[in-house]
Amino acid sequence: MTTKTALVTGANKGIGREIARELRALGMHVLVGARDPERGKEAAAGLDADFLPLDVTDPASIEAAASQVEVLDVLVNNAGVLLERGALPSATPLQLLRDTYEVNVFGVIAVTNAFLPALRRAEAARIVNLGSGLGSLHFAADPSHVYAQNPLLAYNSSKSALTAVTLSYANELRDTPIKVNIADPGYCATDLNFHSGPRTPSQGATAAVRLATLPADGPTGAFFDEDGPVPW
Known about the structure:
The protein has helices at residues 14-25, 37-47, 59-66, 94-121, 137-140, 153-172, 201-212, and strands spanning 5-9, 29-34, 50-53, 74-77, 126-130, 179-183, 223-225, 228-229. By secondary structure, the protein is α/β, with parallel strands linked by helices.
């Protein structure tokens, strides 16, 4: 039986590192995607995994990384940024939006496109994009919902866009064995939020690991947290 290979972007810390750890514990050959060589190598060594240099905003880096992977069974697009700190939507600089989308949206698209040939070579690949309940339009439309009370224009809208991106790929690949879904890790204590979240990275990894290991009759084009479907 051939060992499955999984790539997790932004896997040198936080939720990404925990996803990588859990996939490695399941017997997969894990590639720790990270832009910082020192941190990436250190994380990979601690996980008994391999470091793959990868900056999701750098086309040359993405191309070089993809050229090293012949067959990929699991791609977890975990790398993401939250750059705003409480600014109202009307006060959010356009450059901050551009920088956020560069990682959270365009980076996911660029990495997915680059690795799609390797994913197609796998028997039944899985693509998991890390989303957020803050990107749910259903929650945002309810003024009483806690997520509607956190109007982070750049981050929230980038995660809303990511759900549309996920659906686009799921529809393109629906007639193949590849499944494409989005996982909401919840509000976890990570560097992204200065470790303010009440959930652990291990808890945050649950939905992503589940979607990365879906059986043949599992869903595609869906949005899940660890408790089940999340409304778009």
